[in-house]
Amino acid sequence: MLSQWFLRNFRSDDTVNSPKDKQRVWCHTVNISDEGKNDIKEIPLPISSIAINKDCFMLIDCDSKKIFDIEDELSEYERDTSIVFNKLVLEHKFHILLDVRRRGNALEKMVNFMVIQILLGFLNPQNKMDNKEDVLGHILPDMVKDYEKIKEIIINPPNHVQSFYSQGIFRKMLRVIASNSEVYEKCKALFFLSMLAEAKNLPSPIGYLTRLRNEMFSKIHITGIFHTGYEFDSTEIRPVFTTSPNVVMFNQNNNFNLLPISHNLAIGFSIKASEYYNSHLNIYSVYPNKLKCRSSKKIKIYRVSHDYIDGISGWVTMIGVGQTKTLYTPYELKDIERYLQYQNDNYDHHYSPEVPELVEL
Question: DSSP assignment, residue 127?
Fold first, then answer.
């Protein structure tokens, strides 16, 4: 249930310089053994073999009777989203997250990604999140119940929507409506197509994304951007962030939620707590000189210890294991053991500075 462009941000160290179609990730599956302990298995998987499971959107065309899906629409959405994330991961243009005045801004795209990815994750059988059935369990049955109304509004949309019907995503909606598949399957495809349309700032005849975004991430506030201090193509012994099919790591204990977006970068945020959005961003890095951004009134940069980043990456992994059976990482288990030994051998360096230090770049 993960996009290939996103997984490449967590590519294995041994394939960092390989062509995109040759890169892989270490896939760690975590299950409980008969003794009640974590049974961890690791598999090196080609990234080209892992992606959103588009099979769950397969439908039967009414004319040809052939199978079709919404792969093209999902792929186009992935390409659009990757542009914003590349600005953060590769160019460190964090300031784009502060400009929230215009429609379709970077923060909105990031939150849209989290909403859509979480919902796609609900279709993943490995998802262990509590009450994962609640959202789709309410929306899809309601759509089935109201299907005739949905069908009518898609076939005969309002004038302000009709003018966009030459675009492929709306033609796909019409094809879904005409499909010979079960109504539930058609509603599932329409639900995601409507969100993809909204993510492109198109007027959707059955909008869900804005409502879900406001419900799930209202009053979002970025509490910190955490950079390991190592460059994107680094293969050094270093702290790394992991990811999982759910992508977002919700920490209900203290509202310190995390979105790791690459092996060396994660965004921390709170929801439903702050009255105002960020006026500035705090960036935390082990080696601030490796950042491509500079200090300003709106960008405050702090030097932190390896141990500080280890605490953040530890939260990501711990929450990820609690939410899903699968983790993806550039490290294999022996690399983690090497890193732990590296900590012991470089104790003073690893724990310095004791507290974050504000720096000017």
Answer: B
Q: Are 25 and 328 in contact (CB under 8 A)?
A: yes
Pairing outcome for strands 299-303 and 281-285: parallel
The β-bridge partners of 26 are: 44, 329
Q: Within the chain, where are the H helices?
A: 4-7, 71-89, 106-121, 133-145, 147-155, 159-162, 168-178, 183-199, 209-216, 306-323, 333-345, 347-350
Q: Which of 237, 238, 240 has the alpha carbon at shortest distance from 226?
A: 240
Taking a C-beta distance cutoff of 8 angstroms, is the pair 236, 290 a contact?
no
* Positions of the chain with pLDDT under 70: 1, 50-55, 125-134
Most distant pair of Cα atoms in the chain: their distance: 70
DSSP assignments along 267-280, one per residue: EEEE-S--SS--SS
Q: Are 325 and 121 in contact (CB under 8 A)?
A: no
Threshold 0.85, pTM exceeds: yes
- Give the HSE-up count for residue 313: Cα atoms under 13 Å, Cβ half-sphere: 25
Tens digit of pLDDT for each residue in 42-54?
A: 999 899 886 555 5
Find where tokens 């179609």 sit: 21
Residue type, position 46, single letter: P
> pLDDT for 6-63, tens place per residue?
999 999 999 999 999 899 999 988 777 778 777 888 999 899 886 555 567 889 999 9
Please give the structure tokens belonging to residue 307.
């141990």
